[in-house]
Each structure stands twice: as structure tokens, then as C-alpha cells.
Amino acid sequence: MCTLERRGDLFIVTLTGDDEHWIGPPLISSFLSLLTQINSQATPGSVLITTSHGRFFSNGFHLPWAQSAASKSAAKDRILHMVHIFKPVVAALLSLPMPTIAAVSGHAAAAGFALALSHDYVLMRRDRGVLYMSEIDLGFTLPDYFAALMRSKIGSASVRRDVLLAGMKVNGETAVKLGITDAAHDGGEALMEAAVAMGEKLAKRKWEGEAYAEIRKSLYPEMSPLLNELSGKL
After folding, report:
1. At what angle are helices 157-165 and 144-153 packed, to 10 degrees?
2. Gap between the Cα atoms of 89 and 75, Å rounded
3. Which of 54, 93, 126, 193 is the most buried if burial means most Cβ atoms within 10 Å?
4. In angstroms, rounded to a whole number, what is the distance separating the alpha carbons of residues 50 and 138?
5. Number of helices and strands (H, E) in the chain?
6. Is the pLDDT of residue 224 over 90?
7. Is the predicted pLDDT of residue 229 greater than 70, yes or no?
8. Distances (CA, A) of 122 to 42, 46, 66, 105, 118
């Protein structure tokens, strides 16, 4: 589901394969396990980069798995289960003692969008991929921590309205203009080169990880209940 590469001070996590990288129990378990490993190996100057193979960064929660349940109530239970077990991933990223970069190489929808936003920096491809909160189009409500994350990371109320209430699909160039992401690059190779270059630049600062994590938490006070609830689980 996920691989970890160590490149000097950089930890590079890749969602592997050419599928849609559905966020279900297997991927969540794999990703959270790698974050635990990275946290335990962190040193001043460490940086995390998260990226993926294929057309999708992540298409969100594993709806095909949920819909394969024996009944509508069982399908709903599976969705609620994914909402619950994904929360520690968001908390872990917001608590990780190092800078974090999402190199979004394809489409990022719903929980996949939330996964990207849980990083400090978000880079996209200019030529492929959109950010999309599909809940309004699917008739789903928004998990409380998704809403808090959106309010914390997207500064413009009108942009949040268009993303959450109009289901706007945002390409790389537009995402930069709207202040959702930091940069857009032409092609997957250029994207990863930019992510690695940014990571190496950040790594040279040799920041103390715990101080970095505490300052990050202070930037997003609305996320504090989530972080406090799940503290110590890594």
C-alpha cells in the first residue's frame, strides 16, 4: 500500500500502484505504521514527503468497499469506521516533529484532499490532477475534523464555500491562485524534483523537531481537540 524511502534527511512515503489509492483500513494501517516509524527516527533536519504513483494521489475513503457490505446500514457503518480510523493519520501528520510536504501527483478527492492538506506544504502537477471535496455531490455530511482542517488551512471563506458547498474541482494552477496550495509543476518528474529541492532546503535549517511540532499545533487551535484526543498514540 505504501513504501518508505530514506534519502538523507528526507523520508519519502509513496502510495504505490496505479489504482485510486482508496483510503480504507489497509492503507490507513500501512500509512500510520510508516508515520510511527518516521516519528521514532526523526532527527533535527528530517523532512517528510508524501506522494503517489498513477493518476490518483487518493480518491478518498474506500467507497467500493463500503458499498459491498450486505446492507445499507452496514455500508454506513463501514464509512463511519473509516472516518474514525483516519483521524489518527491527520493527527499524526499535524504532530509530526518535522516539516511535511505533499507532492500531489494526481487527483485528490475528499479524504485524499484532507490527506494532502494535513501537510505543511502542498505541491501539485499543473498538467494533471484536481482537488475535489465530493461530499456535497455524494450527499454525505462532512466529518467534524475535515471541517476544522478546511477552516484551518484554507483562509478564504468564499473559497471554502466553493470547495465544500459547490463541489468545485480545483486544478493545480487554480489551487495556487486561490491559496490552497504552494506551487504547481509541469509533470510528475518536475513535481518530485521540486518537492525534494524544497525538502532539502528545509532540512538544512536543522530545526528541533518537537519545537517545530508545537509551533505547528499553535497555528491551528481549532485542531487542538483532535490533537489532544489522540496525543501519545504514535
Report:
1. 140
2. 22
3. 93
4. 27
5. 11, 10
6. no
7. no
8. 21, 17, 29, 11, 9
Q: How far apart are CA 62 and CA 80, in angstroms?
A: 11
Contact between residue 58 and residue 22 where contact means Cβ atoms under 8 Å apart: yes
Overall average pLDDT of the 128-141 stretch: 96
Q: CA distances (Å), 40 to each of 35, 43, 97, in order?
A: 9, 9, 10
Please provide the size of the chain in residues. Answer: 234
- Name residue, grid cell 513504501: 3
d(CA 13, CA 52): 8
pLDDT at position 234: 44
> DSSP E strands: which ranges in the chain?
2-7, 10-15, 47-52, 56-58, 100-104, 107-109, 121-125, 130-132, 170-171, 183-185
Contact 98, 40 (CB under 8 A): no
- Per the CB < 8 A criterion, the answer to whether 64 and 28 are in contact is no
N- to C-terminal Cα separation, the chain: 20
